[in-house]
Write a structure and sequence with these properties.
Chain lengths: 246, 309
Amino acid sequence: MRTVIKPGAAIFANIFRRLMQRRVALFLVFATAAHALLMLTFDLTDRNFGEVTVGLFLAVALPVTALITAGAALGDERAENTMPFLLVKPLPRWVVAVSSLLASVATVFTVSMIGILLAWLLGARATGDNMIGWPAFVAMVIVAIAYSAVFLPIGLLATRSTLIGLAYILIWEGIITSVVDGAAASSIWRIGLTAYADMNDGLPRGVDDLLANLEPGVGGALAKALVLAAVSIGVTTWLLRKRDMA
Amino acid sequence: MTTPNQPTVVVENVSKWFGQKVAVSEVTAQFGPGVTGLLGPNGAGKTTLLRMITGLVRPSEGRISIEGIDPHDNYRALDAVGFVAEDEAVYKHLTARKFVRFNAVLAGVQDPDADTDRVIDLVDLQGAADRPVGEFSKGMRQRTKVAAALVHKPRVLLLDEPLNGADPVQRSHLIDLFKSLGSRGYTVIVSSHVLHEVERMADRIIAITDGRMAASGDVRSLRALMTDIPQTIRIDADNPRILAAALIGTPYASGVRLERDTIHVEAADPAGLARAIARLAKQHDVIVTRIQPEDESLESVFSYLVHRR
């Protein structure tokens, strides 16, 4: 096991640094801080804090951030022809898959931190509840894992993974899962929403219909995200072994 | 592991097609210690063949092994392999030293710092080692990639157009390095379309055209294989007109051309022509000062091979 920790850590650090140094990372920092900046413009209450956090951060900014990041984790390696540096090595391919997934999650976590912390600070000051930002933080971690799990192998396979992901978020998650009974279970960002709802005893009234028929629950949400991560590692490893990586 | 007499890399009846396009077709070859040049025009299938040996591309048919292990089934085969890809891709945000060290860590090198320093010296990059690779010229990037490929002391070095972008001094340095590695027992496989460079560094040449192996051997033996194509021989003599007239009447010369004091003979049978020159020179009292094949360069050999197909 020790023989894969150092290479795995090196791959993690390299992909994390590359993802953070892209110009789009700065845009993603602003995108994930948009809800916090919006909170500066009105008097915050428990309810409107929740509405903005769910409606802007969890439903829009975070999924877009996670898909752009995860799609690029290995997608950029392939697009920029740097894959041979990872794969022509005496190293099991699952190490590359795990390291990439962790790097993607860590990047989403890092770019979202300013928005999370700023919103937390503003919410705590306005409401006196020092734990007001904790549910959004937990939901962010779960959504980052789930989206990274789904879009890591898609980024490896498809050159336009971001477009595919945006279409998925807008059409499937934004429209179809809201109008088709039972489809909400296939919505990735709602995995995080169930955790958020559980930690807040439900969703604020203005956005409570977003949960559809899903049961709130942090444990279940985390379990779903981890299952997606395990499947993603398996699929990505298989792709790295069996597909041409020219 | 293989013994010294066994080939290090074995390619058995390997084909690769991408959809309808056949990139490599039924190539069988064995590679052992020394430098082997993979020679062919762009699109001939050299890069695909090298990438199949590295495990990056799976053969559609056939089998590849490195020291007896299939790199597509067992990643441990890649412990023996160092690879320099054709493109300029590097991690631009890393310095050359960090880039090479990254490759050392991934290859499981015991002391990455020491081995990084060693190969940076080897490719003569000491002065630029702490600059980001993104600032490098194409030639310096190539040297950085060569250093990264060598950092774990691989026994098989696969180089896809490694001299691209290098200036003449760097080219000369890299050619000497590859030749030295080949003479020290490394299996070095170099692909190139720059013919005179392959000629300078390779002990053996495999010519590929249209995805197929056109020929293999050293330049001289490849040329000798082409018995149906006349060789051009240059002859310098003190009285070339008399010798040229005498050669026209022999069955060994299919064409004779005189330029100033030099005779150019199209020889269908070079060995017979050599004997005839000696006999005719003595018979006509002509002093021959030089006999030299004009087209034994790799370029002309390759040109023949391509056009013969």
